[in-house]
Specification:
Elements: E1 2-4, E2 36-39, E3 42-45, E4 48-63, H1 64-71, E5 85-98, E6 103-112, H2 122-131, E7 135-140, H3 146-156, E8 164-168, E9 180-187, E10 190-198, E11 201-203, E12 212-216, E13 219-236, E14 239-243, H4 247-254, E15 263-280
Parallel strand pairs: 7-12
Antiparallel strand pairs: 1-2, 2-3, 4-5, 4-15, 5-6, 6-7, 8-9, 9-10, 10-14, 11-13, 12-13, 13-15
């Protein structure tokens, strides 16, 4: 069971107030919200810290119409680097040292316009993408530990559930053709996906802080977070995806996957800080 610790503003589960009028603006008071939560008998304070983790990511360009069908219930609008295409990402994290204990995670996210973005032409939306005026809608987020699952669902409204996730990394010092990391996701004994990310070349990623959106029980929430990355490699393509017989796999097929990846990357050392969620209303709703 997860409960927010008492606070004078009456903030409920999810870290924000109930949605207000259809204004497309934040209705939860950020730092005025609950700053600590009781999760399965333990206190979790915000911001939640990730002190050491590794991450792998693969990006795909998919038809915007198909992606929008997944996002439509939230009121958000997908975006991408070219008109008619949306950007979807598969991300895998091995969390080694965090306030929520060690765990593995697989994320399906889609790039979206900000929740309060006004209607805009296709060229304007492309400009938004390239200037970084975007967010990420977290559509699926299976994990392999109950504590992380409960905290993620109740504090941020993230779509977590408990599955089996294995991450098979190459031996230290291994490189060249065939070297890479293989991730296998199994839910209740059913194969969901197997993703292999090949090694790439060294690259630098600046600190990032894209807002993340979650949608649960008809409520849209916006979470701010920051992350730093060291030891990152990347390359165009560089990923192989095999889909199983599972509803999550069927959703990815509906986006046209598997297909050639746009870009893949791996980060040997990642840190992150997650603040609370704020209830918002998308301007398209």
């Amino acid at each position: 069971m997860t409960t927010p610790d008492p606070d004078p503003d009456g903030i409920g589960p999810g870290g924000g107030r109930a949605p207000g009028p259809d204004t497309g603006t934040d209705t939860g008071p950020g730092a005025g919200g609950a700053r600590s939560w009781t999760v399965m008998g333990r206190t979790v304070s915000l911001p939640v810290q990730v002190r050491r983790a590794a991450q792998w990511g693969v990006q795909y360009l998919v038809p915007a119409e198909a992606a929008q069908r997944l996002v439509d219930p939230t009121g958000l609008e997908v975006n991408g680097p070219v008109p008619g295409r949306a950007l979807v990402a598969l991300a895998v994290c091995r969390y080694d040292d965090t306030d929520l204990d060690p765990y593995h995670e697989v994320a399906v996210s889609l790039v979206v316009r900000p929740h309060d973005a006004p209607p805009a032409s296709a060229p304007h939306r492309v400009r938004e993408f390239w200037t970084g005026d975007i967010g990420a809608y977290i559509h699926r987020l299976p994990v392999d530990r109950e504590f992380s699952c409960t905290a993620g669902r109740d504090i941020w409204g993230f779509p977590k559930w408990v599955t089996s996730i294995s991450i098979d990394e190459p031996a230290t010092g291994t490189s060249g053709p065939g070297a890479g990391t293989t991730v296998r996701l199994v839910d209740g004994g059913v194969h969901v996906l197997t993703l292999t990310i090949a090694s790439g070349v060294r690259m630098h990623l600046p600190p990032q802080s894209p807002p993340s959106y979650s949608f649960a029980d008809g409520v849209l929430r916006r979470t701010t977070w920051t992350t730093t990355a060291n030891g990152t490699t990347g390359r165009p393509g560089g990923a192989s995806l095999v889909l199983g017989n599972h509803p999550m796999a069927d959703e990815l097929r509906g986006l046209g996957l598997p297909r050639r990846a746009l870009f893949s990357s791996a980060t040997a050392m990642m840190t992150a800080s997650f603040d609370g969620a704020r209830v918002v209303t998308a301007s398209r709703r």
